[in-house]
Amino acid sequence: TADYDPNAKYSKKKQIEYKSLFVDPNEPIRLNKYLANAGICSRREADEYITTGVVTVNGEVAKELGTKVKRSDVVKFHDEIVNIERKTYILLNKPKDCVTTSEDPQARLTVMDLIKDACNERVYPVGRLDRNTTGVLLLTNDGDLASKLTHPQYLKKKIYLVHTDKNVTKHDMEQITSGIQLEDGEIHADEISYIDETKRNQIGIEIHSGKNRIIRRIFESLGYKIIKLDRVFFAGLTKKGLQRGEWRYLTEKEVSFLKMGSFE
């Protein structure tokens, strides 16, 4: 029917209130972290705003990058009071022809268009998927968690299904696991296998690297063209039960696992 909304079951009314883990209201936190947690910007951007003098704490312009604030302090950004927002975590099964940005100058479909009814909080994607890569994408306003999931020190496991333009040889698969030299250094997959021995152009690959377009670059370096690329697993999250373009809120348990670093 024309008014069928596949995401109706995930309306704002059902939005999950996540428990804040171990938050002491009197514990001072760095101002840049406070602004990031409020969904204003990233920590790096917050530092730039602080140095330009558009952030005040209790009426005083904050110019020191290391400034710490408490939750009881009145923080303003461009004269607007900043409140730490409730945390929101959304899992999207990203479709093709959709860009992983908040806004697109070419007016293409963005991941934000797909989740626009999910929440009032300003969430942003954790990491990126190319326009034509599909699959698991996490969006949140939890700056701490986003940093942890994308920081090179804590690289998280990702599994992709790859469809190539021709059969991939056993020799090339062995090369991918032992290591391939790309322009920005050596890269190797943790595991790689055929999805089906009879269809050797369909490959499952597990990797921890967070480098840009890494899967496409690995296969292109060996002379293959990727026809389809689908991320089926990211840091313990899968798209099970979600059609392309559909989303859901993470469960309390999933959020706890991610925060505690329990997922690989």
TrEMBL record:
Q: Which GO terms describe its biological process?
A: pseudouridine synthesis; rRNA processing
In terms of Gene3D superfamilies, this protein maps to: Alpha-L RNA-binding motif, Pseudouridine synthase I, catalytic domain, N-terminal subdomain, RNA-binding S4 domain
Q: Give one GO term, molecular function aspect.
A: pseudouridine synthase activity
Spell out the CDD domains in the cross-references: PseudoU_synth_RsuA_like, S4
The alphabetical list of record keywords is: Isomerase
Q: Which InterPro entries match?
A: PsdUridine_s_RsuA/RluB/E/F_cat, PsdUridine_synth_cat_dom_sf, PsdUridine_synth_RsuA/RluA, PsdUridine_synth_RsuA/RluB/E/F, PsdUridine_synth_RsuA/RluB_CS, RsuA_PseudoU_synthase, S4_RNA-bd, S4_RNA-bd_sf
RNA-binding S4 domain location: 29-90
NCBIfam families, per the entry: pseudouridine synthase (TIGR00093)
Similarity-based family: Belongs to the pseudouridine synthase RsuA family.
Q: What is this protein called?
A: RNA-binding S4 domain-containing protein
Q: Which organism is it from?
A: termite gut metagenome
